[in-house]
């Protein structure tokens, strides 16, 4: 696996639930679901939708929101073993997340270090939370991703590297389309099946480990 590189989503992949949805369910006023629906149907970009969602949350509740997010970010079984395996095999493992720094970094801290962690950042200096976007789309993507996973892949992976994407949602679809192999669950699994994208389903990271150890996801 000397030439393999892995790009792994965070929300709903490393963690069992989508942390942004969980935060909004707990703290956002009624109506935030309309923004989620606008994103899922493509009427709003991910960047527009997530930015608008967090602008509904008052920074006065920063400590409460942060504590809740970290407490409820339950990591999917087998993740620690999966990370250890990538280290043993010297496989670069990048976490690429549309989530926000204030809950992504604390959740991942005890599992690192990783080859890199990419996520959006938060600004609590105003009355409501403002999301910043340090990893926007490159010139090859005009989708308004916010955090653009294909752009990150193009920057980090060489042409001859075997790219594996691990993910679950609509935010992972563009990355999966550019991968050599996908470990998929939930929405992303359905899209891979529908479009014939080479993949293997997973529920836990033990499943991911089994796939990689069997060589099913790696062609030489």
From TrEMBL:
<dbReference type="GO" id="GO:0036424">
    <property type="term" value="F:L-phosphoserine phosphatase activity"/>
</dbReference>
<dbReference type="GO" id="GO:0019509">
    <property type="term" value="P:L-methionine salvage from methylthioadenosine"/>
</dbReference>
<comment type="pathway">
    <text>Amino-acid biosynthesis; L-methionine biosynthesis via salvage pathway; L-methionine from S-methyl-5-thio-alpha-D-ribose 1-phosphate: step 4/6.</text>
</comment>
<keyword id="KW-0378">Hydrolase</keyword>
<dbReference type="InterPro" id="IPR036412">
    <property type="entry name" value="HAD-like_sf"/>
</dbReference>
<dbReference type="GO" id="GO:0006564">
    <property type="term" value="P:L-serine biosynthetic process"/>
</dbReference>
<keyword id="KW-0486">Methionine biosynthesis</keyword>
<dbReference type="InterPro" id="IPR017718">
    <property type="entry name" value="HAD-SF_hydro_IB_MtnX"/>
</dbReference>
<protein>
    <recommendedName>
        <fullName>2-hydroxy-3-keto-5-methylthiopentenyl-1-phosphate phosphatase</fullName>
        <ecNumber>3.1.3.87</ecNumber>
    </recommendedName>
</protein>
<dbReference type="Pfam" id="PF12710">
    <property type="entry name" value="HAD"/>
</dbReference>
<dbReference type="InterPro" id="IPR050582">
    <property type="entry name" value="HAD-like_SerB"/>
</dbReference>
<dbReference type="InterPro" id="IPR023214">
    <property type="entry name" value="HAD_sf"/>
</dbReference>
<comment type="similarity">
    <text>Belongs to the HAD-like hydrolase superfamily. MtnX family.</text>
</comment>
<keyword id="KW-0028">Amino-acid biosynthesis</keyword>
<dbReference type="GO" id="GO:0043716">
    <property type="term" value="F:2-hydroxy-3-keto-5-methylthiopentenyl-1-phosphate phosphatase activity"/>
</dbReference>
<comment type="similarity">
    <text>Belongs to the HAD-like hydrolase superfamily. SerB family.</text>
</comment>
<dbReference type="GO" id="GO:0005737">
    <property type="term" value="C:cytoplasm"/>
</dbReference>
<dbReference type="GO" id="GO:0000287">
    <property type="term" value="F:magnesium ion binding"/>
</dbReference>
<comment type="function">
    <text>Dephosphorylates 2-hydroxy-3-keto-5-methylthiopentenyl-1-phosphate (HK-MTPenyl-1-P) yielding 1,2-dihydroxy-3-keto-5-methylthiopentene (DHK-MTPene).</text>
</comment>
<dbReference type="InterPro" id="IPR006384">
    <property type="entry name" value="HAD_hydro_PyrdxlP_Pase-like"/>
</dbReference>
